[in-house]
Amino acid sequence: MGRRAPLILQVRSSYPDGKLTLEANRRRLGISQATVIPSLMQQTTQDYEIRLRIHQTDPLRSERLAAWESLPVKIDWQTGFTDFPSGKLRLVGRLDDDDAVHPEYYSDMIAKAARCRPGTCLDYPAGALYIRGNIGRYSNFGNMFNAVLVDDGRHAFTVMHNKVASAYRVVSVASRPRWCWVRHDQNMSKHIRSYVTKRATHPNEFGIDISALRSWTEKDKSGI
Length: 224
Hints:
Number of helices: 6
CATH topology: Spore Coat Polysaccharide Biosynthesis Protein SpsA, Chain A
Oligomer: single chain
Distance between the termini: 42 Å
Shape: globular
């Protein structure tokens, strides 16, 4: 049995002035309030630290901070995520601000990490995909919901999530769907769209406010 490592979850919600129109920025914030925020509030463990990446020049900076105030977040104002000092074991995960995870995801991940060696990536291939009001089962190895156990100060995500296997020892965890990847109107590939329509709809087990998400994504024509 290894050491229990604290989980540091890095959430990307960085929109500098000029990156998005104000309308698109408000839409993105609305999607966050319907997905990632309620999802994290429903986690069966709150024994983790959230590092929220927000840009200093974000026109909606105050509103975005207010939306997250119900969760114990630390703000990372830097342009990139922070490296960690060597010698302290950490489990580092990441999450986009428009996705969601199962309520038991992080408690399960922390327990599994205690049996792993540093330099291990925990990968959960089974998840779900939200498209136009429906949630269908979806499987994706090397997805963006994985987490890395590190103790050497390396930044956990110096490589793209689908290239993690080249930098870390990957442990694939078999489980029921543990994450939900939210796809917007313009950022869906034809392959994903056709795949999900052929799958049975999966019940919403991720804390998502479906009606609010439908409302915001129906307005989404920007591909954010």
